[in-house]
Amino acid sequence: MGKRVGLLGGSFNPAHGGHRRISLFARKALGLDEVWWLVSPGNPLKPKKGMAPLEARLASAMAQARRAPIVPTAIERELGTRYTVDTLAALQNRYAKHEFVWLMGSDNLAQFHRWRDWRGIARMMAIAVIARPGYDAHALASPAMAWLRRYRVPAASFATRGRWSAPALVLLRFDPDPRSATAIRRAEPDWAAQFAGKPVRDPLTHHLVNPEEGI
Prior knowledge:
This protein is 36% helix and 17% strand. By secondary structure, the protein is an alpha/beta fold.
């Protein structure tokens, strides 16, 4: 039998304790075996200015994931996918025995309707939305939520392998975590320097991510 894996995508620019805390909370709430952090080569909805090199962001994710059931990976670089819907389809094809759950904050749900084929993502795997301070009202009023609301599944039922099939939406609430990558970059603009020029071995694929490959 494969694993039940939560997928958390993002720039991780840099990764921080908030990512770790959210992931461990979601793992427990949903009965996941582990969480994979999909460190994006480039987010189509975010500007490239201020984006640290991929190997630095992956290294920061590996540091935050240490001694936890969290697996950071830059597998999107190998898959050659740019959009989430394509990445998730490729992961399901490559790891067919695993059961995946897409994890995202309520800030992403608020703009989920802007993502390429977002309904296709919802039909592909369950989605768990984690509350994020300041975004809940926008998320609940979003076009995506209007469509997804009918597919809500209680977290307790989901965690105990209750009957469900995608589309399935699980809403999770936990104590707000004020940490953000934006605040870290503001306080420490050169955070990526500690990882500069160092190749990083991807914990999932075991392939090297070399500095010269860039973002």
